Amino acid sequence: MGQAQNQIPNAEELLKTTEGSERIALLKELSRLYMDTNPDKSIEYAKEIVILNASNPIEKSASLYNLGNLYRRVNNYRLALDCQNQALEIRKTINDQQGIASSLNNIGEIYKTLNKSDEALIHLNRSLEIRKESGTQKEVAYTLNNIGSVFWLKKDYGNALEYYLKALEIRSELGDKSDIASSLNNLGNVYKNLNKPNKALDYYSKALEIREEIGDKTLIAFSLNDIGGIYWRLNNFNESLAYYNRSLALRKEIGNKLFIAATLKNIGTVYKDLNELDFSLKNYNDALKIYDETNDQKEQANVFSLIGNLYETYNNFDKSLEYHKLSLTIHKRIGNYKGIAYSSNNIGEILMKYYPDKEAKDYLLLAFDHANLCKDRSLQKIASENLFEYFSNQGDYKKALEYFREFSSTQYDSIVDQIDKDKIAEFEANYQISKNKDEIKSLKAYSRQQSIVIYLFVALIILAGIIGYIANKNIKIRKEATQALKEKNNELEEINSLLKETEVSLRDLNLTKDKIFNIISNDLRTPFNDMKLMSSKLLESFDQAKIETQKDLSKNIKDLSFQTYDLVENILLWSASQSGKTKFSPRLFNVKELLDHSLTKLSEQLVEKNVKIIFNLDSSSKAYADTAAICEVFKNLLSNAIKFSYREGKITISAREKKYWIELDFSDEGVGMSKTNLHKIFRLDNNYLALGTAQEKGAGIGLLLCKEYVEKNGGKIWADSEEGKGSSFYITIPKSDKLMGSVPKVEDQ
To answer: Is tRNA-binding found in the keyword set (predicted)?
Structure first.
């Protein structure tokens, strides 16, 4: 990003004296350079390109197409559509079939974003027809994927899954890893919306693994953000924050403001659920600043709604109403029906529950009307349920019954959705990409057969509900039925989660077994062979009376014995932890004192290399964890730092106090490591080993032990390094039991 910024002044200076085709090339480059940092500037340069290409139909259509994409990036969909339609008409006149397909595809994507699914499908299907005849397989898969996304937005997950799998089948045959990862991510989106978080997490993780292998930071950030969202749904807020913060760091490095704001918004929501009002507000406000800079009014309104929800959780209803009304004003100004429905519903709910104000009815009716306009079933359900409650409270039972019918209709949709979800899950579990398309057809046929039974069954339920309500206004049956469905769904979800956990556990056990066997067969065999050889040489030296040789060999044997002992100890500790035999007893302890205790075990290594330890921490800092486990973590991190430090080097131990945890930094000035190897060090299945500056050996088991112990004590561990400049290892330790998760609390000692 810095390099791009450095290129801009030179390019703009050249632009003053450049004409013709060279000027167009320079304008294209400037538009590209400004794309992420200053979209408005990027658009201005793209407009000039359109003007300069006015006499060349091919180039003009291409420049209009690119300008439309830029307008789409800044959410100006009206101008984006205008540019794409102009490009389409030009391409039709010159019979550019591939260009026509591209324009149709982009127009379909814009309509998809605007929630105009019918128009989106018309354009995307026309694009697909052309691409099947004259396009590449990659383009066909791309359009199939877009059609799947339209069905996904319509919550038609059966068709979404069908098109996503068709796209994945082609992409798998082509072997395009980036596109395969995109398809896997889309499958994750389907299962996220089907409330199958563990299934979604599996697909998101596979996509992340491929994207990390490719090294595409933009897509890695997307996957990290998606995984953070799943952990948030699972109420694992620490893990959610870890992934969101990794995504945020990458997005700041890339410099795309809108993506940065989106992640800040997510982090703010996690802090809201952690009851951290200050942190939540800070992140929401940071996101608002970016949306204000980029003039993204829709997202500004969405953040105002989030802040309104935040204040409502703290029972500050005046503030909550203030922000929801700000949100509603913006949504009305930009004509966002879904936003109007959402904001007015929030306002109506608060007024109905906490204020003796008849104004609630106006907002609730506004929400209901706009929920119907945007055809969002979840908003329709909420709006009709709120109006039913409002008119029931007012004693207007005729009106209440009217909205009860509307609510019952959405409940019917929910029952159909639930049956569809179960069939989709069964279909995907048995579906293999290599199978023919008959399975999908048979699934649809089965769906049609079952729908008749479903309609009759649900109609009887609705009729019984209405009769029961008119008779004695008893809605208990409806609640019990809903609860029963929910409990059944939770039961099935729990079974799926247990199966998933078992699968992950078995996979980890296999990796653990393989790792231990590898260490025993290779890493333990080598030092013992070395000791055998040295011992033999030592015995031979007695006959020759070579005192210096004997001293060197004895020292080598001693050093090797200590290294081997440490290796065996780490293997035993790690194996015990993997098998669940390690018991953790957290308590408050002094961080500096535990560091000093750990260093006493490494005094000989420090003296041998003459490495200096520099402390940069408060000697009174305290943390809350199992001291035996954290002592092993300190020992391993310091031992590694010494191993990879040069003689007479220095190691700095720093500590930063956070609100709920302490962050420790162990930094050396040693050999460092490449970014590729940095990604391997905490992985069970890695084969990365390195020798220390004095040829010290290790099996990599120590860092696995550190990760295990830190995470089981409620913290996290990560590293940063640069070849030739040293490494920094970071860990966080809770300051109290607030973020300790499942670690049991004991009394202070």
So the answer is: no
User: Residues 6 or more apart from 494 whose CB is under 8 A from it?
Assistant: none
d(CA 79, CA 89): 15
Give residue for tokens 């199978």: 435
d(CA 220, CA 675): 15
Cβ-proximal residues to 346 (8 Å cutoff; 6+ apart), any chain? 305, 308, 309, 320, 324
Radius of gyration from C-alpha coordinates of the chain: 31
Residue type, position 725, single letter: K
Coil, helix or strand at residue 720: strand
CA distance 17 to 411: 67
Per-residue CA distances from 34 to 6, 11, 72, 187, 275 (Å):
12, 12, 15, 33, 39
Exposed, middle or buried: residue 426 (CB in 10 Å: 0-12, 13-18, 19+)?
exposed
> CA of 351: how far to CAs of 51, 160, 356, 361, 624, in Å?
53, 39, 7, 9, 44
Residue with tokens 């409806």, as numbered in its chain: 478
Tokens at 236, concatenated: 């694992």
Q: Which two tokens stand for residue 466?
A: 């209405």
Question: b/e for 469-490, b at 16 or more Cβ within 10 A?
Answer: beeeeebeebeeeeeeeeeeee
- List 651's β-bridge partners, or say none: 613, 668
- Number of Cβ within 10 Å of residue 256's Cβ equals 20
Residue 741, pLDDT > 50, answer no
Above 70 in pLDDT, residue 505?
Answer: no
SS3 742: coil
| β-sheet bridge partners, residue 664 | 655, 731
Is residue 682 within 8 Å of 673, Cβ to Cβ?
A: no
Q: Residue range 367-376: average pLDDT?
A: 83
